[in-house]
Specification:
Largest sheet: 3 strands, parallel
Structural class: alpha/beta
Distance between the termini: 20 Å
Helix content: 10-25%
Strand content: 15-25%
Organism: Cylindrospermum stagnale PCC 7417
Protein name: NAD dependent epimerase/dehydratase family protein
Order of helices and strands: EHEE
Strand order of the largest sheet: 1-2-3
Shape: globular
Radius of gyration: 10 Å
InterPro entries: NAD(P)-bd_dom_sf (IPR036291)
């Protein structure tokens, strides 16, 4: 299990959201996202939350 800080992001598909995702990735956050247009920054792309 990763010891990086974790964050779940929903709806990061607009200009501000994408820059926020990039900021988190650049600062070593373990990012989980339900919606984004930049999957290269996402370590795990969730398709469904249970």
């Amino acid at each position: 299990m990763s010891k990086l800080p974790k964050v779940i992001v929903f709806g990061a598909s607009d200009f501000i959201g994408e820059h926020f995702i990039k900021y988190l990735a650049d600062n070593n956050f373990d990012i989980y996202a339900a919606v984004t247009t930049k999957p290269e920054y996402i370590r795990i792309l969730l398709t469904a939350l249970k």
